[in-house]
From TrEMBL:
It holds the Pfam family DUF2961. This is DUF2961 domain-containing protein. It comes from Paenibacillus psychroresistens. InterPro entries: DUF2961.
Length: 370
């Protein structure tokens, strides 16, 4: 990855657009009012965005979901990047926490510094915007750097960077219910992608380079028996790439529930409740092994084997492709991006109470009776 660091490249200029105080004082930020959209960087000609750094001060504690980052290349109408700002940089659920990977990071203080090192080429101008969709407060202080290169021209072989946020509250089969690990009854096979969670549905030529995967599980069962399934250029199931389980897809094993940070993969957030109940953030970047496609890519993952679990799933997928790209589904309104209620100890106790009543309300029921 460092092969080109020693290459002398005449004609390339390094530039920065930042929020520095144009008066020379120390108010090195901009303010983005409620409902406002700010252009934080507008570039002309050809170039490559090399690094983005952002930090935010806002009284709205959910601003990482309520602020939207968008990026436009070459004068396009529909953004190539569209995501809540926290999810894009590697923080789910509107939370602040540290996140370490090679292309993206949330750095000290306590994850407040958002960084991207993805290369983002353009041939005829670029624009990066931030929309404050909060109804509670302006973004009082928005600090940023956009570091980029100016090139004489951009080769036609350079793809454009894309990122898209998706979310789904997954459902389960009415007959079998939440039946992971065959706990309730024997599980059925799943020889299709029909009911999977889809994290990328792309038309064009390019390569897939990464995913941030945010899962909120309302129950204690392991959420990760889901296989990843990739259908390339319109092929049928099982496709060119077919996985063996969620943790396997994220390069770990045996139902992990611990923090781990590798440059390419890891677990940036894990729950500390009962089993795997709560919020887990997994990530995987395909920097050495991109998934190539010539016409299209349909990438999905089961939510439990045979899609047997109700989960709150949200993802940001990252890829490069030729333009024009297929416009993304309309971003859900901010009310639809709010978190599901947290399930806690009291909820589990209430479940146990109802279970006890359903079994005769004996004073000595333990909890594992059939």
């Amino acid at each position: 990855m460092l092969n080109d660091i020693c290459r002398i490249q005449p004609g390339i200029k390094t530039k920065r657009i930042s929020s520095y105080d144009r008066t020379g004082r120390n108010a090195d930020y901009i303010t983005i009012g409620i409902g406002e959209t700010a252009d934080i960087a507008v570039m002309e000609g050809a170039g490559i965005v090399k690094h983005i750094w952002i930090t935010i001060s806002c009284e709205d504690t959910f601003i990482r979901r309520n602020a939207i980052i968008r990026m436009y290349w070459d004068g396009e109408e529909h953004p190539s990047v569209e995501s809540p700002i926290g999810d894009f940089f590697g923080q789910g659920w509107g939370e602040e926490y540290s996140f370490i990977s090679l292309p993206l990071a949330a750095a000290p203080l306590k994850g407040k510094a958002l960084n991207s090192y993805f290369a983002m080429p353009y041939g005829n101008g670029a624009r990066i915007t931030i929309e404050n969709q909060s109804s509670e407060a302006p973004i009082r202080c928005f600090y940023y750097y956009v570091d980029y290169e100016v090139h004489p021209e951009m080769p036609a072989s350079m793809g454009r960077f894309h990122a898209s946020w998706r979310r789904e509250l997954t459902g389960v089969h009415p007959e079998s219910g939440e039946n992971e690990w065959g706990t309730i009854s024997p599980q059925e096979p799943n020889p299709s992608v029909e009911h999977n969670y889809v994290f990328a549905d792309i038309v064009g030529t390019g390569h897939f380079v990464g995913i941030n995967y945010y899962v909120d599980s309302p129950g204690p069962m392991w959420y990760g028996e889901g296989d990843d399934m990739w259908l390339i250029d319109g092929e049928d199931w099982p496709g060119s790439l077919h996985g063996t389980g969620t943790e396997d897809f994220f390069n770990s094993s045996w139902c992990p529930n611990e923090l781990y940070a590798h440059p390419f993969f890891g677990y940036a957030r894990v729950p500390d409740k009962l089993g795997w109940m709560g919020r887990t953030h997994c990530y995987r970047f395909f920097l050495q092994d991109p998934v190539y496609f010539d016409k299209s890519l349909h990438a999905s993952i089961e939510h439990g084997h045979d899609n047997s679990l109700a989960l709150d799933l949200s993802t940001v997928a990252y890829w490069y492709q030729t333009e024009p790209h297929q416009p993304y589904p309309e971003l859900p309104a901010k009310e639809q991006r709010s978190n599901m209620p947290e399930i806690g100890v009291a909820d589990v106790h209430k479940w146990r109470h109802e279970w006890r009543k359903a079994r005769g309300n004996s004073g000595t029921l333990w909890g594992n009776e059939e």
